[in-house]
What we know:
The chain is α/β, with parallel strands linked by helices.
Amino acid sequence: MDTNPVLKKLGFSNDDRVVIIHADDIGMCHSSVAAFRELYDVGIITSGAVMVPCPWFLAAIGLKEEFPEIDLGVHLTLTSEWKQYRWGPISTRDQLSGLIDPEGYFYSETELAQHNLDPKFGRQELDEQISRVFQSGHFPSHLDTHMGTVAHPKLMSAYIELGLKYQLPLMMFRMDEMGWRNFGLDAESSKVVCQISEQLEKMEFPLLDNIRAMSLQDPDNRLERVKEEFNNLPPGITHFIIHPSVDSQEIRAIAPDWRCRVGDYEVFRNDSLLKFLNNEGIHRIGYLALRDLMPTNLFQSS
């Protein structure tokens, strides 16, 4: 595949390794908000995304008062994965929407959410979450997806349309059909999305090259694992996912994987990691840099 044209627009070379260090799940609980606030202030991470339906959304979005130019996007949420700590849609309570499980919350698994939802209601819910962020007075930096739920034939077109509607960059990749199939789409949808992404790039819509994430399965040797991941970054623009939370009784009660989340927080507040990234020549950007590249001619007909 040809080199990502965004690299040149941002002043990088074709071989540069550029990373968006992205904190997921902000607002899921207080511990996530506290971790993001500190890490963003320290300056190693470059972006995050808020979960609008979650209890600590208002605290997360309130960080804009302290950081007026905060790089905070919308973590579009259609699932609620914890056993005893749940949330549901903000746009409807209609059981016919397919968004709500028998207990009255979002489904706990991506596949269940994708299978059951009515696409019309799914799009409305995503739209309402984005709208709620704008209503708060915050202009989000981008859109991405919680647990990859939008990577489905029922939702992918809505995801792209909402990026166009709100003039926001997407966590959207320059992948071939096989790449999109590995991402969760079926063969037909992969072909369509591949064609759409190619067309968007021709229209100068900024896209990403790669995605990497810190595992939530193994909390041991977290710093060494992070360095290994960064060492192995390919050229291009990579969306790099972490899930930081400060250690608290709250996060321990919510998430069985809390040790990994606390590990991400501890590693990314470590000064030695920033020195490592600089020594390796890894460049960090946020989604605000991509939002600045969004072409205005995309929206005249959307």
